[in-house]
Amino acid sequence: MDLPAIISLRDGFAFAAHIESAAKEAGREVVPEFYKFPVFYYSNHLSIIGGGPVYVQQNHLDKLDFELEVAIVIGKQGKNIKAKNADEYIAGFTIMNDFSARTIQWEEMRLKLGPAKGKDFATALGPKLVPLAHLESKRILTTNGSHWDLPMFAYLNGKKISAGNLKDMYFTFAEIIERCSYGTTLYPGEAIGSGTVGSGCLRELNYHWREQAKSKNEDFDDVWLKPGDTIELEVEGLGRLKNEIILQKE
Known about the structure:
With about 250 residues, the protein is an alpha+beta fold. The protein has helices at about 15-25, 85, 100-110, 175-180, 200-215, and strands at about 10, 40, 50, 50-55, 65, 70-75, 80, 90-95, 100, 125-130, 140, 145-150, 150-155, 160-165, 185, 190-195, 230-235, 240-245. Helix content is about 20%, strand content about 35%. The strands form five sheets. The chain has a seven-stranded mixed sheet with strand order 2-1-16-6-8-10-3, covered by helices on one side. The chain is globular.
């Protein structure tokens, strides 16, 4: 089914592999709060796009990244929703590419706010909204909502560079809904991302590729998205979302 109009956009932080890899790259430990509750940030729902061109400015190209995610769309209104009941508030799943200008993101987050300008220029959702009923055979029930066994892949210029699975989320979407809805009403049409699957972005992949090259005493130049690149995200049962990077004149 077609995606509804999205009235707000939150993005979660639910894959431990992504968080732990990023921390290792930065030479620090994962903050213990990550394992205690699911966190999220607000992004720009007015810059949501589907498949097709992603128009960026010159500064976005300084370490421009993709992020392989799945998003839920809320299907009914609720407040203070408990995780054990939260799956029934999900209208369906869609693929999400949280495009990230890493240099801008890292500069502004040193001020303990954000991400903001490093993210708000484009977020791709699509190609469709898949109702949960269509994914029932992939459901893994837990006491805190469901996980879904959905393989996830990313392709850069036609070459597969990343593979993961939605079932590896440390927190369920139900737990994320419980956190988001505490003291706040959720409405139909609100989208919430899973966060990046492990190795589902160039930031992580560059770290792994760099370490592999180092072990072989080889040189390695980081890979980032550039004009003309195509990035395709595929999730089993959800389809494939394809975007092309286009430099827009300022």
